[in-house]
Write a structure and sequence with these properties.
Oligomer: single chain
Bound molecules: ligand C2E, magnesium ion
Helix content: 40-55%
Distance between the termini: 68 Å
Order of helices and strands: HEEEHHEHHEHHEHEHHEHEEH
Shape: globular
Strand order of the largest sheet: 1-2-4-5-6-7-8-9
Strand content: 15-25%
Number of strands: 10
Protein name: EAL domain-containing protein
Structural class: alpha/beta
Number of helices: 12
Low-confidence stretches: none
Radius of gyration: 21 Å
Mean pLDDT: 90
Largest sheet: 8 strands, mixed, barrel
Length: about 280
């Protein structure tokens, strides 16, 4: 009886696995088609100085609208693209698009607004990555100092010497580096100091717990103290409430990003937002 039940659940399990693999293969094929048909696009979310509300940057975020008008979230398709290697081509497209947008922002008087671009481990491992970055800069005319690459904490902590060398070359080119989703990985302090990144991006999960008296508040406070000690600038992601912004500011976090300030917006809306925001600046 027990044996039979067990066998039954194994069969059910492998059927679920099979379904899941089939779904993934199907989704990957659709993603390739969407990429080829240029149905992927970027949205941009402002990053502001918490003390003044001044916009100091925008993060480029990838979006996929399917044929039937539905949206597939990046948390679903980016991992697929990573595992299949498609992320190299996709990531290059993101780089070029975002750099072009940055150049256009500069041309319209917003050259002081940084463009933050997410880069995944597979991209960093691509031997031609540095060349691709240089090409994206040359082709767009964007100034390297306006571009920041965001890398997740686990990637930044990769111990390979080659990756450290790639970071060094990126920095030499004049780009800035930020560690994304900080606090979710296992950073070694010495490694963190050696990497000399410009910014730490505090993960949304810790920000969400601020103002609720949870342990996330303690982590946010630890991360802020650490960043200050290492002389890095701090930015918090996923700020939705005023009280979170206030607490972060009190902890010494200078910058923030989240629905409280602005949602990610299409490229066409960004210039108008930046213009309006610059005009209305001065302590929001
Ligand atoms: P991320 O880099 O940590 O991006 C921040 C995510 O938080 C974005 O989700 C953004 O829309 C969301 N967010 C911002 N403010 C708030 C807020 O106040 N509340 C809440 N609940 N969410 C907020 P999104 O756009 O769904 O992207 C998810 C992840 O997908 C990104 O996390 C990033 O890891 C990855 N991703 C997105 N675009 C790219 C890309 O072009 N290349 C790579 N390699 N990864 C990307
Ligand atoms: Mg990011
Ligand atoms: Mg993040
Ligand atoms: Mg995140």
């Amino acid at each position: 009886q027990a044996k039979q039940e067990e066998r039954g659940s194994i069969v059910a399990y492998s059927k679920r696995m099979g379904d899941e693999i089939r779904d993934r293969v199907h989704l990957l094929r659709e993603l390739r088609d969407a990429f080829a048909a240029e149905r992927l696009f970027l949205v941009f979310q402002p990053q502001v100085e918490l003390a003044t509300g001044r916009c100091v940057g925008v993060e480029a975020l990838l979006r996929w609208r399917t044929d039937d008008g539905g949206m597939v979230p990046p948390d679903r398709f980016i991992p697929l693209a990573e595992r299949s290697g498609l992320i190299v081509a996709l990531g290059e497209w993101v780089l070029r698009r975002a750099c072009r947008k940055a150049a256009r922002m500069a041309a319209r008087g917003h050259g002081g607004v940084r463009m933050a671009i997410n880069v995944s481990l597979t991209q960093f491992r691509d031997p031609r990555f540095v060349d691709r970055v240089r090409a994206a800069l040359d082709e767009s005319g964007a100034s390297p100092g306006q571009i920041e690459l965001e890398i997740t904490e686990s990637v930044a902590m990769d111990e390979s010497a080659r990756l450290a060398e790639v970071f060094g070359r990126i920095r030499e080119m004049g780009l800035e580096l930020a560690i994304d989703d900080f606090g979710t990985g296992y950073s070694s302090l010495s490694k963190l100091q050696r990497l000399r990144v410009d910014r730490l991006k505090i993960d949304r999960s810790f920000v969400q717990e601020l103002g609720q008296g949870g342990r996330g508040g303690e982590i946010a406070s630890l991360v802020c103290g650490l960043g200050r000690r290492l002389g890095m600038e701090l930015i918090a992601e996923g700020i939705e409430e005023q009280v979170q912004a206030e607490q972060l500011l009190a902890l010494g976090c200078q910058l923030g990003q989240g629905y409280l300030f602005a949602r990610p917006m299409p490229a066409d809306d960004l210039h108008a937002w930046l213009d309006a925001h610059a005009a209305g600046a001065g302590g929001t």
